[in-house]
Amino acid sequence: MAVPIILLPDGSILVDPDVHVLAERLGLSTDPTGTIYDLVIVGGGPAGVSAAISAGSEGLHTMIVEQDVPGGQAGYSALIENYPGFPTGMDGSALAERAVEQAERFGVELVVTRRATGLRAEGPERRLTLDDGVEIASQTILIAIGQSFRWLDAPGCASLIGAGVYYGAATVEASSCRDQEVYVLGGGNSAGQAALFLARFARVVHVLTTSDSLDATMSTYLTERLERAPNVVVHPHTTVADAGGGDHLQWILVRDTKTGETSQVPADALFVFIGAAPRSEWLEGTLDRDAQGFLLSGHDYVCEGPAGWPLERRPYLLETRVPGVFVAGDVRKDSVKRLTAAAGEGAMAVQFVHQYFRETVGLPALTGRGAGAVASLHHRTRSGRSLGPRPRTRPAR
């Protein structure tokens, strides 16, 4: 049975390593170093990293907890061309790497391969539980967990993941698709970017979309480029009903969503971009979620505050039913599912954090006060004395 083998820079070899072990061997931080934070951000996608940059630059003792690697779904994009400041576009992983480096320069702590499993309020503190049972105390928390890839529910596909069926791996697998017959399932921007990138290598790239056309779901600049690409073919109202091929994908069964007709076609690779779903189950019973799992926040409580809301004021725009716990990015109900929108919400959330400290906790504005200023002031307020120096944030890598 084939297993992944990792060759490390020091010459050592890891055979099928746990992702947590791999992160540690690569020198990444997997455990928090502080005792209490001003702001803990759950999620290292565009919203989370943008918030971290704003918070760190304004002197807040900030940490990001990311269960995978920073970047979110944007990190899987082959080429992002509609983000301000990059007129020729940039690889999504490179953009994520730059943003993380910028956050770390402002003293933000980054903890990777750690999954949040619980959240509770304890007096003025908000406590986040990690997958090993460790609790992190913070004055405020920002939920920016984004969404995870939606799995294709078709027979044969699950057993071929990584062996011809891929989720968000176009940039990694493209070179192995040289002169092959490749299929991309999806009608959004991610699918369009992947198709254009794969077209550099593959003989033919087939784009399957359940819509009648790509115009309603994909940016114009992408649809126009797909139309001009000589080796890209778009198949409207079409999906994948089955897949097979033994140890590696060899064929897929495509189905016309209007007529129900099916046909088996040869396929060397299938890249799936059929949307995403919020991974918010761990917040059930703590924060309000809609039927799809998206989190409710201030603008959803216009008519009346959330049940059990303990304050006289209403929740701030991005504040959840728990005071001091905010939400930003794709996981927020009715958010704009775009990179620029997520980054903007992350930065905006930090301004509500400052407002929360000033109007609810009763602390002055903290901009420029230095990392940990809020937590230190708050501890003095509670106990009447300083609790001594707190650990300084060290770069995660």
Molecular structure report:
The strands form 5 sheets. Strands 3, 4, 5, 6, 7, 8 and 19 form a 7-stranded mixed β-sheet that branches. The chain has a 5-stranded parallel β-sheet with strand order 10-17-11-12-13. It is globular. A hairpin with a 5-residue loop joins β1 (5-7) and β2 (13-15). It is of the alpha/beta class and 397 residues long. The model is unreliable at 365-371 and 377-397 (pLDDT under 50). It has 8 helices and 19 strands.
Spell out the key features of this protein.
single chain; 397 residues; alpha/beta; 7-stranded mixed β-sheet; 5-stranded parallel β-sheet; 8 helices; globular; disordered C terminus
Structural class: alpha/beta
Name the average pLDDT.
85
The strand count comes to 19
Largest sheet: 7 strands, mixed
Query: Which geometry do the CA atoms define?
Result: globular
> Can you tell me the residue ranges where pLDDT is under 50 for at least 5 consecutive residues?
365-371, 377-397
What fraction of the residues are assigned to beta strands by DSSP? 15-25%
Helix content: 10-25%
Topology as H/E string?
EEHEHEHEEEEEEHEHEHEEEEEEEHH
What's the Cα radius of gyration?
23 Å
Give the N-terminus to C-terminus distance in angstroms: 34 Å
Q: How many DSSP helices?
A: 8
